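Hi R.,

Here's the chain you asked about this morning:
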Amino acid sequence: MVEFGLRRLDPKWTWTVADIPANKPAYETIKIDRDGRVWVELSTPAEPIPEAERAPVREGDEARPRRSTRTPTVYDVFSADGRLLGRVALPRRVTLYDAAGDAVYAVRRDSSDVEYVVRYRLEPSLPR
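And the predicted structure, written out as tokens:
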């Protein structure tokens, strides 16, 4: 997609930077919530996007590459003292912004790319 976009600006453009690494890093980002918990966004394997869910090809964009994979968003959550509290997998098209107590605040995009602020409730996966 990067190459496609740059060649639209300059048809003679060539890739002159280092190759894209073959391996992902162990994590993507680290966030600290209002309770001092550490949210580590893990690097996860990409998964294929089903054809029915892919963006349609618009007229005149036939040569434009289409995204064919997506990466699930998964966090390992640690207490402020470093104890693993659990793993949280966000729904697709949701971006984490903040968390406090059992509430997670995020932005969700609908099928038309309209953004909504949403609140999710964290619940233990196993009874205590």
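The mean pLDDT is 86.

Let me know if you need anything else.
M.
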